[in-house]
Design goal:
Layout: H1 13-21, E1 26-31, E2 36-39, H2 41-47, H3 51-54, H4 59-62, H5 72-81, E3 85-91, E4 96-105, E5 108-116, H6 117-141, H7 147-162, E6 166-173, E7 178-185, E8 197-199, H8 205-211, E9 215-217, H9 220-223, H10 231-234, E10 240-248, E11 251-260, H11 270-332, H12 338-369, E12 375-378, H13 379-389, H14 391-397, E13 400-403, E14 408-411, H15 413-429, E15 437-445, E16 448-455, H16 487-497, E17 502-506, E18 512-519
Helix pairs in contact: 6-7, 7-11, 11-12, 12-16, 13-15, 15-16
Length: about 525
């Protein structure tokens, strides 16, 4: 059908044009110069131009993003091969996908085009869902946003995605029939804000709380008439609802819910329900983490209060015992026999060990509450400071202490110095009869550094590798090795405060290697 005057041979052109106008696809014809010679009504709608406007114009100039340059190669291939070709293209200006075929002749092309609106809608839905997931991820992963800010942003992301005007995070007091709005995303003229309360029994959320399952209602009057007379629906005008329960410590905390004053035209899709549940699970886990952190902070505070009280209450009697024992030795030492002097030495030693244990417990209790903020720390500098502090002991034991280049980590410099000193002191103490040989190494593992402190000393029985980190646990008598039994316990608490782990690999009489992980400092900080 290359020409308007005679689109298909000897038939009457007006009659044939009328036939093409009844065809549901867009149909148009081009001559050998790629100029329009015919358009049916559907093609005029597709081009958004009348046939009179396009006749005689080149297809590439009229519709560059619809049926022109985007499929030019296919048009040219059809003319060259004189074989029909099919094509698909996305018309950005129509936000649709076009499916067509071009039928060549010696003098031009006849082209049919169908707008695949359902496919276009599916593509758009996929784009919207991908965008929603990306937006939610960016909110959740943003390290600079506080939890409350993240919740506010997530409410907006989900509300826009599923098409409701209202979004809230609530906390409930079920025994008091109380529903508390902890976060709100609602129209500016809505009489609702964070901190407002309502009876739980007036809301659809009560059912989500009772069943501990997601509640989906597209039209309250149609889908849940038994809830229609609740104040939230009857008085406030809520007509659709999608909400999921939030749990903390295996108990329902509240709801993460979305609703509107108009019934939802379409069903909430399975994807939309899953999206709400997925983010609801994240909210639950974050609230649980915050709850655990608050309990840990309270526990640490109580521990420090106990340690301070114990330190104050015990140190004074110990000082008195030590003072009187010293006074007794000075005044009556000449009158005491060997046993008497030995008894006094035992008593003084016991008081000194008790003092050391109290100091150790106090240090243990303050790891969390008295630590400095974590910042980039050069472990080479930490190691050098500890080596200077232990210089005399290294000389006395004729020890060999080697270290490769150590990394920068995120940490508390004072606590890391205590950690390294405890481990090196431990290696010197349990070196055996031979001069100690100690090696410190580092290896990158993902976002962490794995630090190893190895010795060739007396080692640890495999069954006792975990026990050595417990408070006051000792594998040897005090006559064999000095110490309070709290040094390795303190090491574990310091490492855990830095988000790492510590363990030991050892065999009896084969030495020991203590390993611990610390977060790596970022390149620009180090």
């Amino acid at each position: 059908m290359p020409g308007r005057t005679d689109p298909s041979g000897p038939h009457d052109s007006d009659a044939l044009a009328a036939v093409y106008d009844r065809v549901t696809d867009a149909v148009f014809a081009l001559d050998e110069e790629w100029q329009f010679t015919f358009c049916n009504e559907q093609a005029e709608q597709l081009l958004d131009r009348s046939e009179a406007d396009v006749l005689g114009t080149v297809v590439w100039e009229v519709t560059p993003d619809v049926i022109g340059s985007a499929v030019r190669t296919e048009y040219e291939r059809a003319m060259e091969t004189q074989e029909p070709v099919g094509f698909e293209t996305v018309a950005e200006s129509l936000d649709s996908r076009l499916v067509g075929r071009a039928y060549p002749s010696e003098t031009g092309l006849t082209v049919t085009v169908r707008i695949d609106t359902e496919r276009a809608r599916r593509t758009e839905r996929l784009r919207d869902r991908e965008r929603a997931l990306q937006d939610a991820y960016e909110v959740i992963a943003d390290p600079d946003r506080q939890f409350d800010e993240k919740i506010d942003s997530l409410l907006g992301v989900v509300r826009r995605t599923i098409g409701t005007d209202y979004a809230t995070l609530s906390r409930i007091h079920e025994d008091a029939d109380e529903y508390i709005f902890e976060a709100v995303d609602a129209p500016a003229d809505a009489d609702l804000e964070m901190g407002d309360t309502a009876p739980l029994s007036a809301t659809n959320c009560e059912r989500a709380v009772d069943t501990e399952q997601t509640l989906v209602i597209e039209d309250v009057d149609r889908d849940a008439p038994e809830l229609a007379d609740r104040a939230g629906n009857a008085e406030w005008g809520i007509s659709c609802y999608l909400g999921t329960p939030i749990s903390v410590d295996d108990e329902v905390y509240g709801t993460f819910c979305f609703y509107d004053l108009d019934a939802h035209v379409d069903e909430f899709s399975d994807w939309e329900v899953t999206f709400v549940e997925l983010l609801g699970n994240w909210v639950s886990s974050e609230l649980e983490r915050h709850h655990s952190e608050r309990k840990l902070e309270a526990s640490n505070e109580r521990l420090e209060q106990f340690a301070n009280a114990a330190s104050h209450d015990l140190k004074e009697p110990l000082r008195m015992v030590s003072s009187y024992l010293t006074l007794l030795e000075n005044r009556y030492g000449d009158e005491l026999d060997a046993d008497g002097r030995e008894f006094i030495e035992f008593a003084v030693d016991g008081a000194d060990r008790m003092q050391a244990m109290i100091d150790g417990l106090l240090a243990y209790s303050r790891v969390e509450t008295r630590g400095d903020p974590l910042e980039p720390v050069d472990l080479n500098a930490v190691f050098a400071d500890v080596r200077n502090d232990l210089e005399l002991r290294l000389e006395e034991t004729d020890a060999t202490l080697s270290s490769e280049s150590l990394p920068w980590v995120e940490g508390d410099a004072d606590q890391l110095r205590q950690l390294v000193q405890n481990l090196l002191s431990n290696a010197l103490e349990y070196s055996g009869d031979e001069p100690p040989r100690i090696c410190v190494e580092a290896r990158r593992e993902g976002s962490d550094w794995l630090i190893s402190v190895s010795d060739d000393g007396i080692g640890i029985p495999p069954d006792d590798e975990e026990r050595v980190f417990e408070v006051f646990e000792r594998l040897h008598t005090r006559e064999e090795h000095a110490g309070t039994g709290i040094g390795l316990t303190l090491c574990r608490r310091i490492v855990e405060r830095h988000g790492g782990e510590i363990w030991v690999d050892s065999e009896l009489d084969e030495g020991a290697t203590f390993r611990f992980t610390l977060p790596a400092a970022t390149a620009d900080e180090s």
